[in-house]
Each structure stands twice: as structure tokens, then as C-alpha cells.
Design brief:
Blueprint: H1 6-9, H2 14-17, E1 19-24, E2 32-36, H3 37-51, E3 57-60, H4 65-77, E4 81-84, H5 90-100, E5 104-107, E6 121-124, H6 127-134, E7 158-163, E8 173-177, H7 178-192, E9 199-202, H8 209-222, E10 225-228, H9 234-242, E11 247-248, H10 252-263, H11 269-277, E12 280-284, E13 296-302, E14 308-314, H12 321-337, E15 341-347, H13 354-358, H14 361-374, E16 379-387, H15 389-393, E17 401-404, H16 414-420, H17 428-435, H18 439-444, E18 450-452
Parallel strand pairs: 1-10, 3-4, 3-5, 5-6, 9-10, 9-11, 14-15, 15-16, 16-17, 17-18
Antiparallel strand pairs: 1-2, 7-8, 12-13, 13-14
Helix pairs in contact: 3-4, 3-6, 7-8, 12-14, 16-17
């Protein structure tokens, strides 16, 4: 009989100390959690013993280590798992529970469960406590069948019952036998060359096939590692891929956000700010006059709370006429749709070369001023780098401009001001003092409302 998760049945030698799962950023205080195969084997064996007599168990599938421990424990106990989407509506949840008939629900200690689950026996899975206890598991630890029940279940027995979202009618459950799960994962091993050396990175939900079966059981069946980001951001994905990740799972919106980051100018803080602020972004390109400005990003995005926001972001370069025209077009479109606008200012000034003058730089800048002045929707500005000349002023919201602690905002850069006044370069600092362009000066003068850290 083929074991579903062989690395967890006998995690001796190198397997015991190898990282099995990681959630969050371990470099931050209390920011992440990691379990080795030895630790996950011990934790899941202990939990499996507590649920071995359950006919079926529901798992409150939050994107946490507790969900992984719960699912692994149930599978090792031979108990079918019903993953529950925490955002499922009351009616859909009631249908799933009536259809699958679980006898217990596995959840984290801080999870607030809906009333529909109150009749089920609650089994608490404390991943934090497990991680502490797992640090004391000896490397030679080996979990035996006596620790978690009868051992490996019949290959034709149900491993999971996965339900559809219910958007097109009552949720429909698919019973997935253990044999089918193993065969699917083994097919991917052959197709992708998936090995125990691979480290999978993703931020997918843990209540459907992609995120849970492929994204959790896949690496665990191989003896590889999973790094779950919790909440997706391009920066978090880049961090894990740069520190050992070899595979990335995602959905189209995640890949779209990664592509947008790559399309932005190298070293741009704006691309990171937009990626972290929005869960979904729809970029707009071009000025409808045949030109584009790669140094200015425009479009619409959705915040985590579902609020749509239009954005216009300078990326540290001299903004060209096409950029200002695209900005004005986006602001007016947002105004017609009733969508608030966020502008990020970071430019040494507007482009002033001969090509920019031929393309109508003056008129484009003036039109951007007019678009912001006429907007009926809230416009918020954050200066996050250089705020130089009219090129920056054009995107600043009157009375609603904020600055970061390392930015400046002025009608002219201090170097250029010193040159115009025929001062030597060493007097640039004194010129900057006289311009009063520092964040604290801007707040004191009433130009900026606050300094944002």
C-alpha cells in the first residue's frame, strides 16, 4: 500500500530536521512560524489520536499553519476532511454541513466560528504551541501507527470532500479518494520534475484544490518544503523566491501584480507601494495621442476592503507630456465614476528637453492642474521622494498633501536654485534651508498636512 505522506510516517535522519512548512516572514519578531518534518509529524500524530474516532471532520481553513496541521492529522488518522472557506455565507455553510455531516471542527485558538458550527465538537489546533513543543522533538523521532490510530487508510477511502463556492447554486461537494490525490500529485511530479529539493512559495487559500491539495499536500508528499505568505504581495513573493524558493503558485491576478512590478522602472518605490496598497490593479496606458511615459503609472485598484481607488504615480523620473495627459485622463475618468484618487509624487520635475516642448509640455501640465482642481471626488497626494518644480505641483492635491520623512517638496530643486542664483555648489545646503523644503517645514507652513512614516 502506498503511503499518502511517506515523509511524515518515518521522518528519520535528514527528513526530521528538514523544514516542512513556513508561514510568514521569519525575519520579523513574531512574524512567522516554521515546522520541520519531525515537528509536523509529532504534532499531527498527537492531534490524529484526538480525532481518530470522528467520522468526518471540518477544518476552518484559514491561511495558517493550524490548517496544515489539522488536515495532515486527519489524513494520517484516516478521517475525511471537509475544508471550510471562512468567508462562506450562512446558507452555503449550512448546506455544506448538512451534506457532509462532519462530527467535529478543527480550528485555531483565536478563530471565531459562526453559529452553524456550534453544534460540532471543537478541536483547537494551537500552531504556536506546537512550534514551541516541536523544537524539543529529537531528530530520531519516528511516528508509529499506534500513535494516531489504525495507520494508512484504504486507498479508495475518502481523503477530502471539497465544495464549490456556491455562486451558481448550492455548493457541490466532490469526494476525493486517497488514491486519486496520490495519483494526481505523482503525475505532477513526473510532469514538472518536482523533487524533495523544491521549495514551493504561494499565498493561495487553503480550502480548495489548488492551494490545499497541490499547494500543501504536494510538497509534503515529495518531502519538500512549503512557504506560505499568508497574504500575497509581490515583495513577499520576491523575498521567498530570492531566499531559496524554487516554485511559485498563484492565480492570474497575482501574476498580473508581479508583471506590473517588473514593468515599473527599476528601483521604483512606487511600484512596491502600489503593490502593497492594492489587492488587484488594472493599469491604464497611453495618452490617447500616440505616446506613453514609462515613468508614470496610472490605473485603478482595489484595496483589501474592496474600495476602488484610481492611482497616478510618478516613478522618480522627469515626467513627460504623455504622462501628464495620461494622469489628467485617469483623474477625469475617476471623477466621472465617483472613485477617489491617490497620487504619488516622485519627480525632479517635468521633462524640459526639446522633444518634450514639441509634445506640448506646458499645456499637458496645465491640464493636469485643471483636472485635479475640478475633481469632485477626494484626491489624496503622498510625496514619497523628490517633489521638484511644477512637475510635482501638478499632481499635488490642494489641502490634502502628505509627505514621507525622507521626501522634499519645492518649486525647484536646491541644486538648480543655487545655480540660478550663481552660488557655488557648497552653498546648496544653505539654499535648501532657505527654500524650507523639508517635511517638517512643509507641515509648519501648511503645505503638507502630515508626515507619513
Amino acid at each position: 500500500m502506498t503511503l499518502l505522506l511517506p515523509a511524515l510516517q518515518s521522518p528519520t535522519g535528514p527528513a526530521a530536521s528538514r523544514e516542512a512548512i513556513r508561514f510568514g516572514d521569519l525575519s520579523l519578531p513574531h512574524g512567522g512560524l516554521s515546522l520541520t518534518y519531525g515537528g509536523l509529524a509529532a504534532a499531527s500524530a498527537a492531534l490524529a489520536a484526538r480525532i481518530a474516532d470522528a467520522g468526518r471532520v471540518a477544518v476552518w481553513a484559514t491561511p495558517t499553519a493550524a490548517t496544515v496541521i489539522a488536515v495532515v492529522a486527519a489524513l494520517r488518522a484516516g478521517v475525511p476532511v471537509v475544508p471550510l472557506n471562512p468567508r462562506t455565507g450562512e446558507r452555503e455553510l449550512a448546506h455544506i454541513l448538512a451534506d457532509s455531516e462532519p462530527t467535529a471542527v478543527l480550528a485555531g485558538p483565536d478563530d471565531e466560528l459562526p453559529p452553524a458550527l456550534e453544534k460540532l465538537r471543537r478541536v483547537t489546533v494551537d500552531a504556536g504551541a506546537v512550534a514551541v513543543a516541536a523544537s524539543a522533538v529529537p531528530e530520531e523521532y519516528e511516528a508509529g501507527p499506534e500513535e494516531y490510530g489504525a495507520g494508512e487508510a484504504d486507498p479508495e477511502a475518502a481523503a477530502l470532500i471539497v465544495y464549490t463556492s456556491g455562486t451558481t447554486g448550492p455548493p457541490k461537494g466532490a469526494v476525493l479518494p486517497r488514491r486519486a490525490v496520490a495519483a494526481s500529485l505523482d503525475a505532477l511530479e513526473d510532469a514538472w520534475g518536482w523533487t524533495a529539493d523544491d521549495v514551493l512559495v504561494h499565498a493561495l487559500p487553503l480550502f480548495h484544490v489548488h492551494g490545499l491539495i497541490l499547494g500543501v499536500l504536494g510538497p509534503l508528499r515529495r518531502g519538500g518544503s512549503l512557504r506560505h505568505l499568508g497574504k500575497f504581495s509581490p515583495g513577499a513573493a520576491a523575498r521567498e523566491l530570492a531566499s531559496g524558493g524554487t516554485m511559485l503558485f498563484g492565480v492570474p491576478t497575482m501574476y498580473h501584480r508581479l508583471a506590473e512590478v517588473l514593468d515599473a522602472p527599476a528601483g521604483s518605490a512606487e511600484r512596491d507601494a502600489l503593490a502593497d496598497y492594492f489587492t488587484v490593479r488594472l493599469p491604464l496606458h497611453g495618452d490617447r495621442c500616440g505616446s506613453t511615459d514609462p515613468g508614470l503609472l496610472t490605473g485603478f485598484g482595489l484595496r483589501a476592503d474592496g474600495q476602488p481607488v484610481a492611482y497616478v504615480a510618478q516613478c522618480g523620473t522627469a515626467t513627460r507630456p504623455a504622462g501628464y495627459r495620461a494622469a489628467a485622463r485617469t483623474i477625469r475618468l475617476a471623477d466621472r465614476l465617483g472613485v477617489p484618487v491617490l497620487t504619488l509624487v516622485d519627480t525632479p520635475g517635468a521633462a524640459n528637453d526639446a522633444e518634450a516642448e514639441r509634445a506640448g509640455a506646458g499645456a499637458a501640465i496645465a491640464d493636469t492642474f485643471a483636472a485635479i482642481a475640478a475633481a469632485r471626488v477626494p484626491v489624496t497626494t503622498l510625496v514619497i521622494g523628490e517633489g521638484g518644480s511644477g512637475g510635482a505641483l501638478a499632481l499635488a492635491a490642494p489641502g490634502n498633501t502628505h509627505v514621507t520623512a525622507d521626501s522634499y517638496f519645492s518649486v525647484i530643486a536646491p541644486e538648480l536654485a543655487a545655480a540660478i542664483l550663481k552660488r557655488p555648489p557648497e552653498e546648496t545646503g544653505a539654499t535648501a534651508d532657505q527654500l524650507r523644503l523639508r517635511p517638517q517645514d512643509l507641515v509648519e507652513l501648511g503645505i503638507a498636512r502630515s508626515i507619513v512614516s
